[in-house]
Amino acid sequence: MSRALHQRAVVADAHNDLLIAITARPPHRWAGYFRERWLPQLREGGVDVQVLPVFIDDRFRPEGALRETLRMIECAHTLAEGNADEVRLCLDGDDIDAALADGRIALVLALESAPGLDANVELLPTLHRLGVRIASLAHWGRTALADGSGEDATGSRLTEAGVLALREMERLGILFDVSHLGASGVAHVLELATRPVLATHSSARALLDHHRNLTDEQLRGIAATGGMVCVNFLGEFLATARADRTVDRLADHIVHIAEVIGVGRVGLGPDFIKEVCDDTTPPCCEDVEYARLLVPGLEGPRGLPLVTEALVRRGLPEGDVEKILGGNVLELFRKELGRPA
């Protein structure tokens, strides 16, 4: 039953860093490499909507951050053009619906922490023209716009440029992503936001007290904007003991968030890293024992049907499972993606 449910559901992955792995290849290999290595996995996992974050390794910061941001955006366009029979780079909900109607995977571009932007908020319209539709302002540490959750002890809010970035994103129709943002920054965003806020890959702090997870209060604040939370699959954010990092523990986080803010506000933000780390070289993966971060069976997109099975075992109605798998993300994207204020 769960397999058939998974196959008929719209499945949306709000965070997969596959662009890092693809851009590690020469440009002439980008489209072919995606087709050979990533497309089969996405198809086997039933992925219909795939958010592609642009994440810039430390080795490119600060001088090369904008160049690498543009290079990764070009990669997304190149792989979409080279696989136009299978995928479509989408700018709004209409594009996504058209892709799904054609049986293609809808790709959506995102910025993760936006180091290439620095404090130059006037570049957001440029990035919007290039296809960016989701953006966050920080990763683990400090940026010119905000502090990441690894800097929670500073208690800092958005900088002046960060506030301007939020306003500009709302004007353009770029969804604001609070995943990785420090606690005070999240509170600041929720004070200022006039449009829905998204967490692309965050789990529940009530179940594991990790700074990368969201408290129940933060969850409610995000839901109050009309936004939603896509749950991170990395074991480090699900349970302390490695043995407890299971698909069922992931289901615990999904169900908890649904109980706090409603099943209509929850999605999936897997953050698959195994193949990205396998395919790239230091400094991206230096000193990272990434195997301990993985949930067995959920090392990549092929494992996504296991999530459906776990939610069915929990007794969730089929309609609720379909919402969590991707229906909620699709609804949010239809309403907000690329829609100017």
Explain this structure.
It is globular and about 50 Å long. Helix 3 packs across helix 4, helix 5 (93-101) crosses helix 13 (318-336) and helix 10 (247-261) crosses helix 12. It has helices at 2-8, 18-23, 30-44, 65-82, 93-101, 124-129, 160-172, 183-192, 216-224, 247-261, 274-279, 304-313, 318-336, and strands spanning 11-13, 47-54, 87-89, 105-111, 132-135, 175-177, 197-199, 228-231, 266-268. Strands 1, 2, 3, 4, 5, 6, 7, 8 and 9 form a 9-stranded parallel beta sheet that branches. The chain has 341 residues and is of the alpha/beta class. Helix content is 42%, strand content 11%. Strand 7, helix 9 (216-224) and strand 8 (228-231) form a beta-alpha-beta unit. The protein contains 13 helices and 9 strands.
The description of the largest β-sheet is: 9 strands, parallel
Question: How would you classify the helix and strand content by structural class?
Answer: alpha/beta
**Proportion of residues in extended strands:** 5-15%
* Number of helices in the DSSP assignment: 13
| Estimated helix fraction | 40-55%
Low-confidence stretches: none
